[in-house]
Amino acid sequence: MDLKISEIRERFNNLNPKSREDLEKIRIEFLGRNGHVTKLFEEFKSIPSELKREFGKGLNTLKTEIQNKIQEWKSEIESNSTSNVDIDITLQEYPISFGSRHPISLVKNELIEIFKYLGFTVYEGPEIEDDWHVFSALNFPEEHPARDMQDTFFITKGPDVLLRTHTSSVQVRSMEKEDLPIRVICPGRVFRNEAISARAHCIFHQIEGLYIDKNVSFADLKQTLLYFAKEMFGTDTKIRLRPSYFPFTEPSAEMDVSCKLCGGKGCSVCKYTGWLEVLGCGMVDPNVLELNGIDSKKYSGFAFGMGIERIAMLKYQVKDLRLYFENDVRFLNQFKNW
Ligand code: DAH
């Protein structure tokens, strides 16, 4: 048995495997089910018990030696194989391009920052609404055309469930829930049944402002909007208020800002008027206050609402509204450094 052990050891020690395949063959030849070492263990069972002690030790040593050496070869082969892989460390790194914020988000965040400075907090409401929050509580008369299917996306009729057509609905939600005074801005998506073109879309974004307290006046509204215009479009920006009509404000106005491109002289962007229309506003109609459980003799307020796409178009000189919704990276990449 001694002789067999040394024979096997010698045979094993003469080997020099070069690959994983070689190594696997060796493992099977020596340690496999019919391998040399395994067979010797079989033989070992039948030798006289007084010899077992002596040979058992030698046999176990041989097995451990072979196992260890196979492990050692394995590590060697593996480390060689990785260093043989073709790696060109002089190659340029793979260009990873980072995303950027969408221009609508950029403008929305900027608006929030501007009004936050004046004490306005963000207030949000649902996109799926009912007639009360979008129309009735805002003093829309029963037969108002905005309630028409041509203008509004209805989910069900009677009871009316619809997609909000303006963020003014969030005014109603805040009056319902919040204690006075209220000073909120409400950004969000709105939906209108409109044909899609360069100037109109069926989905767009608005931001609404509402301030209700004792003694809130039109002068407060004007000063707030002037501050906003200067922050958003530059300190030399002028504003102008034109009388207008909304069911929920009285008096109502539309605000224009002086055209930045021509400095008010007139150009193709401002259609040679020197002015650009940016928002609607007014003093909250006392009817709206009363409809929402606020005493209009004690309290007054102002409100305003604007399209975020419109502000972004003026700010970034974007001529086609559809670009905001197409997710074309060539368009979006331009806003990386803003
Ligand atoms: N809700 C109006 C719209 O969608 C915008 C608006 C005008 C909001 C005047 C107001 C406001 O809060 O006072 O066109």
TrEMBL record:
**PROSITE patterns found in the cross-reference section:** AA_TRNA_LIGASE_II
Q: Which domain of life is it from?
A: Bacteria
Subcellular localization? Cytoplasm
Top-level EC class as recorded in UniProt: ligase
What the record notes about the co-factor is:
Binds 2 magnesium ions per tetramer.
Keyword Nucleotide-binding listed? The answer is: yes
Residues the entry annotates as binding Mg(2+): E250
Tell me, what is an example of a GO biological process annotation in this record? phenylalanyl-tRNA aminoacylation
Q: Can you give the residue ranges of the Aminoacyl-transfer RNA synthetases class-II family profile domain? A: 107-314
Q: Which reaction does it catalyse?
A: tRNA(Phe) + L-phenylalanine + ATP = L-phenylalanyl-tRNA(Phe) + AMP + diphosphate + H(+)
Record note on quaternary structure: Tetramer of two alpha and two beta subunits.
The UniProt family comment states: Belongs to the class-II aminoacyl-tRNA synthetase family. Phe-tRNA synthetase alpha subunit type 1 subfamily.
Full protein name = Phenylalanine--tRNA ligase alpha subunit
Q: What's the source species for this entry? A: Tenuifilum thalassicum
Q: Which gene encodes it?
A: pheS
